[in-house]
Amino acid sequence: MYHVLLAVDDDERRSTRLANAVAELPDADENVFVSVFHCFVDNPAGVSAPQVGGIRRVIDALEEAGVDHEVLEASGDPAESILRAADDEDVDVIYVAGRSRSPAGKALFGSVAQSVILGADRPVTIVGRAGGE
C-alpha cells in the first residue's frame, strides 16, 4: 500500500488539484491510502478539519475515486506540522500544492512548500497549477 500525506490548506482550487493528482495515481483505488492533513495556524471558531472547504473538496474527490483516506489535523507552524505528520504516519510521499509567488515574496515571506522540501527525508511532490488557472 502506497501511503500519501496530502497537505491541504483552505484554498479549494489548490485542494482539488491535490486530490485529483493523487486519484490519478496508478490503481489508486486499490493501492493508495491518503492521510489528508490540515494545519490550523489560527482557529478561533474551533472548527475541525472536515469543516474546512478545501478538506471537504479533497474528501469528496477521494471518495468519488474510491481512494481510502483519513483526516488528520494539527495546530502550529504548517511546515513543521506537515513534516511531523509525515514522520508520525511513516508516509511514502508528501503532496503539497505550489503557489505562484514572486522571487521577492519568496525571499521575504518564505514558503511552506519550500520548507517542506528542504526539511523532508522522503519524496515531496509539488502539484502546480493546471493550464488556464
UniProtKB/TrEMBL annotation:
InterPro entries: Rossmann-like_a/b/a_fold, Universal_stress_UspA, UspA. Gene3D superfamilies: HUPs (3.40.50.620). It holds the Pfam family Usp. Residues 1-127 form the UspA domain. Belongs to the universal stress protein A family. This is Universal stress protein.
